[in-house]
Design goal:
Helices cover 39% and strands 14% of the residues. The chain has 281 residues and is an alpha/beta fold. It has 2 domains: 198 residues, TIM Barrel; 60 residues, DNA polymerase, domain 1 (Orthogonal Bundle), CATH 1.10.150. The longest helix has 14 residues. Bound molecules: adenosine monophosphate (AMP) and manganese (II) ion (MN) (3 copies).
Length: 281
């Protein structure tokens, strides 16, 4: 497979995106994307709708998911699974387990926000939830913007929801090896999502790449929505050093709420093995 404009990471209303799966695919197509993966957080419920829309438009589509992983000292790492079999029973059960903790966490988040002077956050966040099984910090962020606690979602995270801030609640997601195992077991490729976004030391980063590789991880997002040019160079070098396949990924959540629109990203640097190189046309 040799796509011109691949985008292998985005979200729909099935997790914390703003557009329904069909609308995400239509927008990708309109933007000239010629290979798309929908990768909702801990959820695969949007894949059938997205695949059907992509087929109708003649857009190549691969199945995907973005799994929340707890790693080290309260770090959350996101692992994207690409070209997975969404009917794989172990993957389905694993994702179900990861999702199941979200509602209780949301209740605790609302309690913490109430202590900090923001009432009604659970009910407020729920107004923005498209899938009751998938309440996320993004939904809280939209409610806090609505209430005027910050001008935009990014600023809400900086002041209220990021680690160390009043509304943050520590949570146990999947283990790294578990998430990679579910993806591999479902025939997919596991990819480290947006590697530039983790607050890790240089040593911790290398420990993460090694641990990921040792448990069967194969890819890294070299070009990512929020990434700067320096990040592209850094993660291209990491891909070469660790023998990772390279991905290109907007992490689009919705118009006006994301760093990059679907497919609106720099090209992968030369000399890398792209994740799609092994896929049939
Ligand atoms: P959760 O899985 O509930 O912890 O929510 C994580 C989601 O919050 C991410 O997938 C992003 O969509 C969003 N998010 C996290 N950090 C930020 C940030 N600094 N700015 C904007 N959105 C963020
Ligand atoms: Mn998200
Ligand atoms: Mn992510
Ligand atoms: Mn994402």
């Amino acid at each position: 497979m040799n796509p011109v404009n691949p985008d292998l990471h985005c979200h729909s209303t099935v997790s914390d995106g703003l557009l329904a799966p069909a609308a995400v695919v239509e927008r990708a197509h309109a933007n000239g994307v010629d290979l798309l993966a929908l990768t909702d957080h801990d959820e695969i419920g949007g894949l059938d709708e997205a695949a059907a829309t992509a087929a109708a438009l003649g857009l190549r589509f691969v199945t995907g998911v973005e799994i929340s992983v707890s790693w080290g000292d309260d770090h959350t790492i996101h692992i994207v699974g690409l070209n997975i079999d969404p009917r794989d029973a172990t993957l389905v059960a694993g994702l179900e387990r990861v999702r199941s903790g979200r509602d209780a966490r949301a209740v605790l988040m609302a309690e913490e926000l109430a202590k900090a002077g923001i009432d009604g956050a659970y009910e407020g966040a729920l107004k923005y939830v498209g899938n009751p099984a998938l309440i996320s910090r993004s939904h809280f962020a939209r409610y806090l913007v609505e209430r005027g606690f910050a001008p935009d979602v990014k600023t809400v995270f900086e002041h209220w929801l990021a680690r160390g801030k009043p509304g943050y609640v520590r949570h146990a997601w999947a283990e790294l090896a578990e998430a990679v195992g579910w993806i591999r077991g479902a025939g997919g490729i596991a990819v480290i999502a947006h590697p530039g976004r983790y607050r890790l030391s240089a040593t911790e980063r290398r420990t993460l790449y090694r641990a990921f590789k040792d448990c069967g991880g194969q890819g890294i997002e070299v070009v990512s929505g929020a990434g700067a040019d320096a990040d592209i160079r850094e993660f291209a070098a990491i891909a070469r050093e660790f023998g990772f396949l390279a991905s290109r990924a907007s992490d689009f959540h919705g118009p006006g709420e994301s760093y990059a629109d679907l497919g609106r990203l720099p090209a992968l640097p030369e000399g890398l093995d792209p994740v799609w190189s092994a896929w049939e046309d």
